[in-house]
């Protein structure tokens, strides 16, 4: 009896498989995961509409979304242990290295080699560099953000400030004017953003990486200058210790005059803000503008465990589709991120930026794109926490001697990184 | 003779049969216990053992291998200042939340017990925070405690310059300078950031913990109070105990002994396990002032992948909880006569 059942079951399954593959013309199914549902759900909905039309043979199965970049890393690392990886996953730009180190992410070089018009599709070097490890491209950036200045122009005018600051000295003097004008909360500088992004922004502003040849690079004059500049902003502006979510709320409520944060929040801020004029402007530098800025955002990694060349080819097609052309343009249209793709920015989105000048600030800074560096080794994430604690200590006034702090950090982090 | 022999053989056979049956029954009982015992081993004891072994290594999630570190993880926990702050924060939370939430729970239970029908209403209201998911409630608190647009500071600010400020600055007390009071200085300057301020973060987290826990303790005590026989009060009255305090001290409190052991144990363990509010509100900050053990385990083992180190904190945590539970049982049980 049992046997008959299983025979029938097997027959019906194979029959079903045969009919379904006939209907789809040998459809290939790939699996895909991405973070930040509230930012990207609309983006993928838009992309999938045209993707399904252009590639009817590829079925994309969406896995449960990751909460954030940290969660994304956790989930995929666990899936690697349990052999249940998706084919394509979106990971934070600074979390790519860990997957390359552990051998989970596949090199994309063999696929790129087969593409004739790869450069013409809008992939340029600065962008490919963000996902290149050991000279091999492993990830294609999907959405890229840069730090920008958000200004509440109504408050600025109220305090008699008409010129937006271009360097940190001007920022601090503007703070003083704003305070004199009765604005209790002149600034929020996003030190607590994920992955020490703003500390790295002060380092890259001097064109210096925070990690050099796998070693922590805070010990030099650039490191000291970054820490001292941060302290000068905190002290000079009497900045409050707000959590970033609270700060975004305060800014949207029209209480903070200047906010330095990722351009990715622009969409959310524009939706939530009260009745005031919002302007974004280039991120300030030390003297003139910054010499470089860390790129935030996420990139697509191929982590497929499939041996089937058809599945791999489908995964590559999907990966390429979302990072170029119409796919990339959808990123700018639905979020505050910019697509790191030249063709999308220059051609498809030309009119869009004219209509949305606040979203263009980051695009104007695109030439400054530098790597958002990850700290190597198993304790990389713990290093992020050490630097976070140090910055919080500066803000709370626990650390007053930056030279001493610099020496402590250089030593402590030096111990944590692989020798 | 033959008869006799067969009889003995029979009895012998009977005895052997009985023994066999007894043995079989023994084995069957073992067999019946087996699923429960093996599940207990697999689900409860083996993971603790694995965590114990991992705590001596540097295992990181996704790594193919691990290195034996010896006691290095433990040396870090007891040596570094941030982990000393962790133990300090956890102990502070437990020491503040346990007595206050138990005291309030007992007080509320006695009050509700003494009023008639309206008690049901109070019971429901006080029990509401227990029914709500703490994580969801933490998000509500996050909104309410926002430094400028949150309802807490908004409300406090409304009172500035009115009779409310006059009342709560306590300037009407002859020995208090109203202008120097907390309320007046906050009005003149700004109200605290609450969870963003090192001095206020821990008290705020404790407040939420008490708010959440006391309703549960109240219900446990209400159950305990129904078990106190009325006759004891009558007997006490005959013996000359008439005022309420003496009734409480001599009858109610001793009779609630078993309930109290249970409430103290449960509340202590729950306080040790505080996590949701910290994760939703402060992330262990500012300056590690709310860096409780559960959050530290989460941060190290889950957020930073350092499974080995996280296991070491887990073992320390387990040790603390066991220690507290055993001392409590030992100390309190000695004094309880009615359990």
What's the short version?
Chain A has helices spanning 2-24, 37-54, 69-81, 96-101, 109-114, 125-129, 153-158, 168-180, 197-205, 221-237, 244-252, 266-272, 309-323, 325-334, 342-348, 350-355, 357-364, 380-396, 402-416, and strands spanning 28-33, 58-62, 88-92, 132-133, 136-137, 139-145, 147-152, 187-189, 211-212, 215-216, 258-262, 278-281, 293-294, 296-302, 369-370. By secondary structure, chain A is α/β, with parallel strands linked by helices. Chain A has two domains: 24-145 and 296-370, Periplasmic binding protein-like II (D-Maltodextrin-Binding Protein, domain 2, 3-Layer(aba) Sandwich); 147-294 and 375-416, Periplasmic binding protein-like II (D-Maltodextrin-Binding Protein, domain 2, 3-Layer(aba) Sandwich), CATH 3.40.190.10.
Describe the protein.
The complex is a heterodimer of chains A (419) and B (339). Chain A is α/β, with parallel strands linked by helices and 419 residues long. Chain A starts with a helix and ends with a helix. The longest helix of chain A has 23 residues, at 2-24. Chain A folds into two domains: 24-145 and 296-370, D-Maltodextrin-Binding Protein, domain 2; 147-294 and 375-416, Periplasmic binding protein-like II (D-Maltodextrin-Binding Protein, domain 2, 3-Layer(aba) Sandwich), CATH 3.40.190. Chain A has 19 helices and 15 strands. With 339 residues, chain B is an all-alpha fold. Chain B has a domain at 80-147 and 192-335: MetI-like (MetI-like fold, Orthogonal Bundle). In chain B, helix 9 runs antiparallel to helix 12. The mean pLDDT of chain B is 84. Chain A binds chain B through residues 70, 74, 77-78, 80-81, 98, 102, 104, 184-185, 240-243, 245-246, 249-250, 253, 255, 378-379, 381-382, 385, 389, 392-393, 396, 398, and chain B through 58, 60-63, 82, 142, 146-149, 190, 193, 195-198, 283, 285-288, 299-300, 302-306.
């Amino acid at each position: 009896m049992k046997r008959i059942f299983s025979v029938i079951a097997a027959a019906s399954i194979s029959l079903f498989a045969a009919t379904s593959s006939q209907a789809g013309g040998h459809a290939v199914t790939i699996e895909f995961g991405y973070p930040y549902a509230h930012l990207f759900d609309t983006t993928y909905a838009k992309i999938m509409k045209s993707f399904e039309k252009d590639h009817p043979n590829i079925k994309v199965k969406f896995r449960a979304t990751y909460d954030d970049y940290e969660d994304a890393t956790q989930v995929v690392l666990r899936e690697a242990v349990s052999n249940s990886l998706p084919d394509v996953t979106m990971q934070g730009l600074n979390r790519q290295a860990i997957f390359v180190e552990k051998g989970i992410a596949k090199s994309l070089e063999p696929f790129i080699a087969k593409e004739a018009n790869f450069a013409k599709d809008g992939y340029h070097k600065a962008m490919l560099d963000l996902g290149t490890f050991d000279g091999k491209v492993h990830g294609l950036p999907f959405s890229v953000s840069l730090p920008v200045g958000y200004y509440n122009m109504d408050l600025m005018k109220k305090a008699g400030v008409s010129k937006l600051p271009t360097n940190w000295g001007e920022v601090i003097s503007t703070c003083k004017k704003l305070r004199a004008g009765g604005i209790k909360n002149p600034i929020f500088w996003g030190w607590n953003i994920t992955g020490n992004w703003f500390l790295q922004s002060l380092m890259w502003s001097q064109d210096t990486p925070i990690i050099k040849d796998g070693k922590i690079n805070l010990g030099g004059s650039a490191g000291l200058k970054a820490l001292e500049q941060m302290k000068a902003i905190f002290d000079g502006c009497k900045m409050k210790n707000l959590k970033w979510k609270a700060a975004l709320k305060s800014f949207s409520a029209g209480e903070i005059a200047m906010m330095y944060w990722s351009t990715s929040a622009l969409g959310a801020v524009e939706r939530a803000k009260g009745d005031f004029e919002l302007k974004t402007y280039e991120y300030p530098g030390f003297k003139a503008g910054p010499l470089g800025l860390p790129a935030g955002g996420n990139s697509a990694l191929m982590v497929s465990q499939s041996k089937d060349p058809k599945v791999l080819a489908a995964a590559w097609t999907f990966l390429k589709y979302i990072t170029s052309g119409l796919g990339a343009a959808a990123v700018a249209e639905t979020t505050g991120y910019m697509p790191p793709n030249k063709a999308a920015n220059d051609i498809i989105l030309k009119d869009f930026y004219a209509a949305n000048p606040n979203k263009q600030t980051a695009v104007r800074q695109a030439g400054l794109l530098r790597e958002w560096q990850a700290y190597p080794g198993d304790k990389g994430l713990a290093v992020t926490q050490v630097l976070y604690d140090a910055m919080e200590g500066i803000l709370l006034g626990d650390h007053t001697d930056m030279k001493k702090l610099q020496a402590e950090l250089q030593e402590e982090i030096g111990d944590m990184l692989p020798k | 003779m033959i008869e006799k022999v067969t009889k003995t053989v029979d009895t012998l056979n009977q005895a052997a049969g009985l023994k066999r049956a007894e043995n079989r029954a023994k084995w069957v009982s073992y067999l019946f216990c087996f699923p429960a015992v093996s599940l207990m081993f697999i689900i409860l004891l083996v993971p603790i053992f694995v965590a114990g072994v991992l705590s001596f290594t540097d295992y990181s999630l996704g790594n193919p291998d691990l290195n034996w570190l010896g006691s290095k993880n433990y040396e870090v926990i007891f040596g570094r200042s941030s982990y000393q702050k962790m133990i300090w924060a956890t102990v502070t939370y437990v020491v503040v939340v346990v007595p206050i939430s138990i005291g309030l729970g007992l007080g509320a239970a006695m009050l509700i017990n003494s009023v008639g029908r309206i008690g049901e209403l109070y019971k429901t209201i006080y029990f509401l925070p227990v029914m709500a998911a703490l994580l969801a409630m933490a998000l509500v608190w996050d909104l309410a405690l926002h430094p400028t647009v949150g309802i807490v500071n908004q409300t406090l600010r409304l009172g500035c310059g009115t009779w409310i400020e006059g009342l709560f600055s306590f300037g009407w007390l002859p020995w208090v300078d109203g202008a120097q009071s907390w309320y007046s200085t906050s009005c003149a300057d700004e109200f605290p950031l609450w969870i963003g301020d090192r001095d206020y973060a821990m008290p705020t987290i404790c407040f939420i913990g008490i708010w959440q826990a006391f309703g549960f303790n109240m219900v446990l005590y209400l159950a305990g109070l129904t078990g106190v026989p009325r006759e004891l009060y009558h007997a006490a009255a005959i013996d000359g105990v008439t005022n309420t305090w003496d009734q409480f001290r001599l009858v109610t409190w001793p009779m609630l002994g078993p309930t109290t052991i249970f409430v103290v144990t449960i509340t202590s363990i729950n306080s040790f396990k505080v996590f949701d509010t910290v994760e939703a509100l402060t992330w262990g900050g500012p300056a590690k002032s709310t860096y409780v053990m559960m959050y530290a385990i989460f941060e190290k083992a889950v957020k930073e992948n350092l499974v080995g180190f996280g296991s070491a904190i887990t073992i320390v945590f387990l040790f603390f909880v066991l220690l507290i539970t055993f001392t409590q049982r030992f100390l309190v049980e000695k004094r309880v006569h009615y359990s």
